[in-house]
Specification:
- The complex is a heterodimer of chains A (361) and B (246).
- Chain A has 361 residues and is mostly helical.
- Chain A has 16 helices and no strands.
- In chain B, helix 3 packs parallel to helix 5 (143-155).
- The chains are: A mainly alpha (361), B alpha/beta (246).
- The complex binds adenosine-5'-diphosphate and magnesium ion.
Chain lengths: 361, 246
Amino acid sequence: MSVSKSVSHDGVPISIFGAIRKKYFATPTDIVVSSILAVLVLWLLANVIDWAFVKAVFGAGRRDDCLAAEGACWSVIASRWRIVLFGLYPFEEQWRSGVACLIMVIVAALSCVPYFWNGKRLLGLWLSGFAVFYVLMRGGFLGLTPVFEQNWGGLALTLFIFAAVCILGMPMAIVFALLRRSELPWISRTMGLIIDTIRSLPLLTIMFTFAIVSPFVLPDWAVGDKLYRVIVGYAIFFACYQAEIIRGGIQGLPAGQEEAAKALGMGYWHRIGYIVLPQAFRNALPPTINQIVITFKETSLVTIIGFFDVMASGRAASGTAEWSFAHVEVYCFVALIFFVFVFSLSRYGAYLERRLGVGRR
Amino acid sequence: MTEHAILIRNMNKYYGSFHALKNIDLEVKRGERIVICGPSGSGKSTLIRCINRLEEHQSGDIEVMGTMLDENVDHIDEIRREAGMVFQNFNLFPHMTILENCILAPMLVRKIDRVEAEKTAMEYLARVKIPEQASKYPGELSGGQQQRVAIARALCMKPELMLFDEPTSALDPEMISEVLDVMVGLAEDGMTMVCVTHEMGFARQVADRVVFMADGQVIEQAEPETFFENPQNERTKTFLSQVLGH
Ligand SMILES: Nc1ncnc2c1ncn2[C@@H]1O[C@H](COP(=O)(O)OP(=O)(O)O)[C@@H](O)[C@H]1O
Ligand SMILES: [Mg+2]
């Protein structure tokens, strides 16, 4: 924190207390406001610690202790965490679901390594990670018992939907953005109309349309599992937003960039792949990370279509008569899971921005 | 092999209803060095950008290195490979190092392998006197250095012809000569060059012919000697007194 690094005007480091006094207790008004806020914060913190730790009940299967205790009942998590993470996935096979989640996290972590920072490697990494994830979850070969999609659930399902939407949606977004800026007016107008229409619809409507309505419209062979229909719908929704983000990034480029590439004899796809998109993504990095974070959070909407994502599984974990009193604790746990993912994503985004800024200066 | 590097016959260019180039006729022989000058807005950039199809002309013929510039995409690609271009604003690719800037097009367009492309690139970077900057990014270089890289990048494609559009206009005065020196060296090696520039010293020193444009027309063209000492057209005289007079 900057407080400990503060220096006084003559450059001599001053103590933490000195810095605090200067920053928060300089004038009488400061003193009053700071004191009141400090007391409030300490009081809140004390209550939370008291509830979450001091008076809390830890360890599996201690329902009766929980009912007697005033604090949090973490016992519910210890007893029911498997439902939150894996949903209705068969108990003996849940290790597969766990490994699959781990692989997704590893893939995400690997994408942070600069070695993977080009389109081909990134796509290769995500596709192979996704394939391993799918094989582990679905089974049916390599001696793994098949587990059908309707039994997937919990964190594993959330990660699956999220990864599938990103992998499918990102290339679509690029295509949409390129069509949107096509030199042929009827192509760019049509694409613009499609993008604007889909963006003006709520995500939930799109999910419903794809999950429930589309089977009546589509030919049988194209219907597929409800899960995949939702993913396709969500991916199109994602692509429409992301396409506009990419288009913004492209518009931020000086016209001279594409002209220089043309003058060097580079064809359309070379210009797009080597000059336009890499720079557009750099320009559009903050909104892109933002879009990905939102996409992760909004996967929880699939509960409404009847999927058992981490949110719905959480509700199921405290849904039995045995544990229904402990739903707050379960929601805290689910919130913590979301927080860990979203917070690391946004921290990583901030790091990327700093790092990519270097080449531009 | 044709004798002409560029052959423009009765060419017209419109921006919407605005007639930007009017009945342009221009010949550039192989190995010839042309300087184009004229007041701002007279169509110099437009003309030079029509030569490699950064702008499309509406009528007349443009032939570059014996290839007719028409709707055929192969012809356009062919011409762009043979004509290097240097812009006023350098237009280096900011997300790539200097070396990557220089090897990208040779590898993608000429299909040269990386080792060979890097070797060529280092030769040209040495020629523009900045081999030591190869691993830096454009943003870390001065304007004059960036423009020299831009010249090296164009040369790495081994073009038959070089087009310059006011290559020193965006530079601080103290950096102009380092870029002009490179261009003079290029001229001495026999490169065919078409340069839009207001550097009249450069024109006197290397140009075989100076072309004066105004209002989208070629008003007058002559050898530098004649052009500077004995201009025929009234507008040329006015222009020269402005750029030389100060
Ligand atoms: N993209 C364009 N759209 C419309 N008009 C243009 C465009 N580019 C140039 N012009 C017009 O064409 C004329 C010639 O421009 P230009 O070739 O850039 O002149 P120069 O390079 O001699 O200063 C100018 O009047 C300019 O306003
Ligand atoms: Mg110009």
